[in-house]
Amino acid sequence: MPEWSVKNPYPATISENYILNGEGSRKETRHIVFKLGDSGLEYKAGDALAVVPICPPKLVDSLLETANFSGEEEVDTHQGTCTLREALTHKYEIHRVSKKWIKSLENRISSNSTPIEIQIVSRQRVSTIDGSVMIEWDLSESDTEIPSDYEVIDPHSDSSIALWNELVSDQKKMEDYIWSRDYVDALADFKNVGFTPQELIEGMDRLKPRLYSIASSPDYEPGTVHLTVAIVRYNHHERDRTGLCTGFLADRCSVDDTKIGAYMSPTRSFILPENKSTDIIMIGPGTGIAPFRAFLQQRELDGGTGRNWLFFGDWTEEGEYLYREEMESWKEKGVITKHELAWSRAGPEKVYVQHLMKENGEEIWNWINDGAYFYVCGDKEYMAKDVHSTLISICSEFGSMTPEESKEFVEQVLMKKEKRYLRDVY
Ligand SMILES: Cc1cc2nc3c(=O)[nH]c(=O)nc-3n(C[C@H](O)[C@H](O)[C@H](O)COP(=O)(O)OP(=O)(O)OC[C@H]3O[C@@H](n4cnc5c(N)ncnc54)[C@H](O)[C@@H]3O)c2cc1C
Ligand SMILES: NC(=O)c1ccc[n+]([C@@H]2O[C@H](COP(=O)([O-])OP(=O)(O)OC[C@H]3O[C@@H](n4cnc5c(N)ncnc54)[C@H](OP(=O)(O)O)[C@@H]3O)[C@@H](O)[C@H]2O)c1
Questions:
Q1: In the list 67, 283, 406, 417, which could disulfide-bond 401, CB 3.0-4.6 Å?
Q2: From CA 268, how far away is CA 330, in angstroms rounded?
Q3: Is the CB of residue 246 below 6 angstroms from any atom belonging to ligand 1?
Q4: CA 283 / ligand 1 centre spacing (Å)
């Protein structure tokens, strides 16, 4: 069986691709089912699937047109020689201009690396052997009066140079610039810079696979891998844009048709307790629900006595209660022992999962004190940090620890030593 990997992804097809949100929701969260076919790919609840996106063909066409290339030109890439079209489609992230690419314009945009000052430039006509006339530019500093055959060039009158200087000397401006622009935007802004096909791709970010927490158990959904994907859509500079992989999955992957490169990214740590009588607490708002759907499927099949406490949350019950029917059925069957739902945009006050953790602080402490595993999945930047500090304050309050002792307990004992506080955050 071939070893499927980033260098050799399995060309999977999908059997389902639908929106999980209720009507009127402003979010687009999709359930996507990959068929494993005869790949031999195996996984366990908790693993992630790596998906290799393909750049939008329309964006590739626009980029080639803007750069005035046919796409048939040959270029050298980190993965060997191919046509420019192939490189822009499969090998580089063309939907977002990179800092490196902008910085690499330095040699072609100006002979100066420092901010350019007004210079006096002299033009010299030089006759060549074949009789044609060439103009040579002689850059020289001068504080003398400008002779009549000299020309003053203000580099800032060339907007490309002015913009380039601004971006490379101001990190914030650079971040703002690349946040909302792709290479079609950048070529328009740097239209005075000449490119060979090879120069066009130099400095572009290499195309990277994206990871998705698997939302199924292989025993419950044999032969398939289910994903819960939040589609990233935005509009900048009057053009609708998408995240590279989520746009690909949402807009250009048809059921039983499109081949999608994929391979497994197994976890060693984000796994269910071996002992099926161990209780688990799962905190998974938004797409953070994905691995917990897998865990709940597995726990149902395993039939152990361990209790399952799920904290889920999103904007509204009507629009973003992902997998409502399954969750309610699990609740009825007792697979979900306790279920907390935090709707952040349903009323005047934001309700987040950590608010419901606080309300249930004493019971959470009792479960943890009795050996429960504590799992968190979803947003790394805000949610996971707030859940972490809430857990510390719960353990401090109900476990009679000082805040410092509680921090030590959560971070050293639960996380590191006993490995029962586990996170899958992104
Ligand atoms: C271990 C792991 C598990 C994951 N599991 C899941 C999962 O189960 N489900 C899921 O949906 N995702 C998951 N992700 C995230 C996923 O890998 C991708 O990062 C995500 O789908 C975005 O990919 P993309 O290619 O569509 O976006 P990209 O093209 O990579 O762009 C994403 C970037 O767009 C930026 N962005 C957002 N809004 C705007 C805007 N308005 N303007 C400009 N830029 C903007 C974001 O900051 C982000 O940096 C997981 C990540 C990891 C590491
Ligand atoms: N660009 C886009 O269009 C777009 C769309 C969806 C998701 N995303 C990104 O994709 C990723 C996954 O999104 P997702 O759909 O899984 O949902 P998400 O954005 O993580 O939101 C899920 C829930 O978590 C809430 N939340 C926000 N901050 C929180 C905090 N500090 N603590 C606890 N809960 C918090 C949200 O509330 P509020 O949102 O009401 O604050 C929402 O109810 C996120 O990183 C998100 O930024 C981007």
A1: 406
A2: 27
A3: yes
A4: 19
pLDDT in tens, 262-294: 999 999 999 999 999 999 999 999 999 999 999
Burial 114-124 (b: 16+ CB within 10 A, else e): eebeeebeeee
Helices (H), 118-228: 159-169, 171-179, 183-189, 197-201
Q: How far apart are CA 15 and CA 32, in angstroms?
A: 8
3-state SS assignment for residue 321: coil
Task: Say whether 129 sits in a helix, a strand or coil.
Answer: coil
A 10 A CB-CB count for 57 gives: 12
CA dist., res. 405 & res. 100, Å (int): 45
Residue whose CB lies within 8 A of the most ligand 1 atoms, among 47, 212, 282, for a mutation test: 212
**Residue 126 CB-half CA count within 13 A:** 10
Q: How far is the CA of 286 from the centre of ligand 2 (A)?
A: 6
Are the C-beta atoms of 72 and 83 separated by less than 8 Å? yes
| Residue range 229-249: mean pLDDT, rounded | 98
CB of 177 closer than 8 Å to CB of 169: no
Atom of ligand 2 nearest to the CA of 345: 40
Domains and CATH numbers, the chain: 280-425 (3.40.50.80)
pTM of the entire predicted model: 0.90
CA-nearest residue for atom 14, ligand 2, is 286
Amino acid found at 287: T
The residue assigned the tokens 């708002």 is 285
Q: Could you tell me if the CB of 255 is within 6 A of ligand 1? A: no
**Closest by alpha carbon to 352, among 305, 325, 398, 384?**
384
CA of 315 to the centre of ligand 2 (A): 8
